[in-house]
Write a structure and sequence with these properties.
Blueprint: H1 2-37, E1 40-41, E2 47-48, E3 75-84, H2 92-102, H3 129-145, H4 147-154, E4 160-164, H5 168-181, E5 191-192, H6 208-244, H7 252-269, H8 281-298, H9 312-327, E6 334-339, H10 341-351, H11 354-357, H12 370-373, H13 380-383, E7 389-396, E8 402-408, E9 411-413, E10 423-424, H14 425-432, H15 440-444
Parallel strand pairs: 3-6, 4-5, 4-6
Antiparallel strand pairs: 1-2, 3-7, 7-8, 8-9, 8-10
(2R)-2,3-diphosphoglyceric acid binds at residues 55, 84, 88, 91, 94, 340-342.
Length: 449
């Protein structure tokens, strides 16, 4: 009897150990699943996600301590930055697509997935709260990166300038940034470039030749997207229809909208618990590939030759400032320019940054194997997230020789022609060739056949 009750106690002890082990295992598995599948929101408001969200990607705050200081022989003379505006509400076109999804036959999602702000026409295209926050954070880090340089420059209000396109989202991004860098309002108000004269930030608006080429690029992209859909469409449709209870009529275009909605939910509301639960890192990367078929042809390196020249007026303006800075360093002007996804994509195309950012640089096709696509240099989540930016730092050495360094999204990058991230300015000048001093209007003119 005594022996039996001891073994009973023993059994109970074992049961408790097994139960504790089971609970611990479930907890560990939950934490693993949670950390690998659920995007997180950091206390600073920067949205971290393991999804690739194309042009709706939130800006991922870098670890600025990884930027190498310049050697003591190099003196910073000027900085020039080009930004895409911060996170914005969907444009009218995106809102129309989102409405279509909300009205899909049989759609069964919890009420909090339907977000009235994403289809509120009064907000279309406007800078959103997180867009303001992104710009504030970037401006604060810019102050930390150049503390004495910017403080010295701001003593002469003419030597720091802010320029934006005419769109509210770019203008407000510029004003937010300026408010942090120059809280006492020493500098001039942001210069807003009227759309019909803007050849440097919203350059596509006034370029007939690009408009014409865009038709061809869009047609070619459409053919490749059809190939993509024929390969991946059925699996994607089955997956999404099942998850959403949609009975019929779900197309890959709808799934592309679901993906865009996930991007907005993360970038605008730090909300990973709705549409984003439909995607995992691989599915989001696949949807980005589908988007990039088009972006890489319409704005990027796999479209018309004019894509490689669209940022020439911008580089002409940048080099006008660089050359006057080299002639008269104490009066160098540092400029912060605020534009669009197109601005940065055209800059990237002119500089062939895809060759810096990846090892796979064949044109993106609908049949591209995922294993290759993973290594491609043209990825919109990397080159064109909200608030994306490219900086050019100009230095002089002890012999007055000019050097430059490029920063993409606050991380130093090195052109293949350079042996170090601090590189002779001649390399950049040679790379740009006749893009410096180009006649943008004549490049954009359609000559009669
Ligand atoms: O050209 C535009 O309307 C958007 C790109 O829109 P998407 O094609 O990415 O939706 O550029 P933005 O002003 O947001 O930088």
């Amino acid at each position: 009897m005594f022996g039996n009750s001891l073994s009973g106690a023993e059994r109970a002890r074992k049961r408790r150990i097994y139960a504790a082990l089971a609970v611990a295992t479930i907890f560990v598995m939950f934490m693993w699943y949670y950390s690998s599948h659920k995007p997180t929101v950091s206390p600073g408001g920067s949205r971290l996600t393991n999804l690739s969200l194309s042009t709706k990607m939130p800006y991922l705050t870098p670890n600025t301590t990884t930027i190498r200081p310049a050697s003591s022989g190099l003196e910073l003379v000027q900085v020039q930055y080009v930004y895409r505006h911060g996170a914005r509400y969907p444009t009218q076109g995106d809102m129309a697509h989102i409405k279509e999804v909300y009205e899909l036959d049989g759609l069964s999602v919890s009420r909090d997935w339907i977000n009235a702000e994403l289809i509120d026409g009064d907000k279309a295209g406007l800078l959103a709260k997180y867009g303001y926050r992104e710009m504030t954070g970037i401006a604060q880090r810019t102050m930390q990166r150049y503390p004495t340089f910017l403080a010295d420059r701001l003593r002469n209000p003419e030597s720091v300038r802010f320029v934006s396109s005419e769109y509210q989202r770019s203008h407000m991004s510029a004003r937010t940034f300026q408010g942090v860098v120059d809280p006492k309002n020493h500098t001039k108000p942001v210069t807003v470039l009227p759309l019909n004269k803007d050849t440097i930030l919203a350059m596509k608006a006034g370029c007939s030749m690009w408009e014409q080429e865009k038709e061809v690029a869009t047609y070619n992209a459409g053919r490749e997207v059809a190939v993509f859909d024929s390969i991946h469409g059925q699996k994607l449709r089955e997956r999404m229809s099942g998850k959403l209870g949609v009975k019929s009529g779900m197309t890959v275009a709808h799934i592309s909208t679901l993906y865009t909605m996930c991007g907005y939910e993360i970038s605008l509301f730090a909300q990973p618990d709705t549409w984003c639960t439909l995607f995992d890192p691989d599915t989001s990367a696949l949807m980005e590939l589908r988007n990039d078929i088009k972006y890489s042809r319409v704005y990027g390196p796999f479209g018309a030759n004019i894509n490689k020249r669209m940022a020439c007026a911008l580089f002409t303006a940048l080099f006008r400032d660089i050359d006057s800075a080299l002639r008269d360093p104490p009066n160098a002007i540092s400029t912060f320019r605020f534009g669009h996804a197109e601005t940065i994509m055209f800059v990237s195309t002119l500089l062939s940054l895809e060759q810096v950012l990846g090892t796979e640089n064949s044109p993106i096709t609908g049949a591209m194997p995922f294993s290759l696509a993973r290594h491609r240099g043209f990825k919109t989540s990397v080159i064109a997230p909200f608030s994306t930016n490219l900086g050019i730092e100009l230095y002089k050495d002890q012999h007055a020789q000019p050097f430059f360094r490029l920063l993409l999204n606050e991380r130093a990058i090195r052109l293949p022609e350079c042996t170090d991230e601090f590189c002779s300015l001649d390399v950049l000048r040679n790379k740009l060739g006749d893009n410096i001093g180009c006649d943008f209007n004549s490049i954009c003119r359609i000559t009669p056949q």
